[in-house]
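Hi support team,

I submitted a single chain yesterday and got back a structure, but I'm not sure I'm reading the token output correctly. Could someone confirm the output below corresponds to the sequence I sent? I've pasted both exactly as they appear in my results page.

Thanks,
R.
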Amino acid sequence: MNARDLGGLPLRGGGRTRVGHLYRSDAPLRWEHGDPERLERLGLSTVVDLRELHELEREPNVLATTAGVRVHHVEVWRRIHASGIAPSDPWDITAFYLAALDHAGDAFAQAIEVLAGAPGAALFHCTAGKDRTGVLALLVLDLVGVDRDAVIEDFALTETRIEPIRERLLRDAELRGIAKRDFIRLLGATPDLIEPAIDHLERRHGGAEAYLHRHGASDRALAGLRTKLRDPSPSR
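Hi R., thanks for writing in. Yes, this is the structure output for that exact sequence:
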């Protein structure tokens, strides 16, 4: 499973993100042994599912029927296609990161509002926990002041964890008649794939705070998420 706590990451100027408040993952599709007990210990109250409607229909979110957990559906890729300016190369995943930043700002602002308002721990995810999840993680971590290198390292952790998910997605793609040599280009998680998105966010959009505010995130949500995730105490 490609899941992790976004706590413990170094902040620019000192301190670290708080542990136990925000998680990212691939899609939770089935219970494994001990999962309900682990979920209860996490205190999870809120989930943001970034997948498209057809993905939810094909593979339902197991947390949607879990007592005490509210799942919010926020589509990202649909905004790119609705813009009429989708990347010309459908297998260039970095181009989709840039397009998501350019055309799905309202979706990311909506997700930020939900995460900031979560009464307990929160989780966000897409299918593999890599692309839509990776761009939202970039926005969250930049907003709260995580060091650039740590943002890149967090993204690249997926490269070491995604193999079972990659195999499943490749099998599914081949069943749908998509050539493996093409589809596999979408499934990497190396630093070079996210670095252009980090640069694009800064140079074109002025960083996460300006970007999210421009697309409808409230001052209260932005400040609340910072307060929730920042631990300015010196690292020990």
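A quick pointer for reading it: Strands lie at 4-5, 16-17, 22-25, 44-49, 70-73, 121-125, 230-231. Let us know if anything else looks off.

Best,
Support desk
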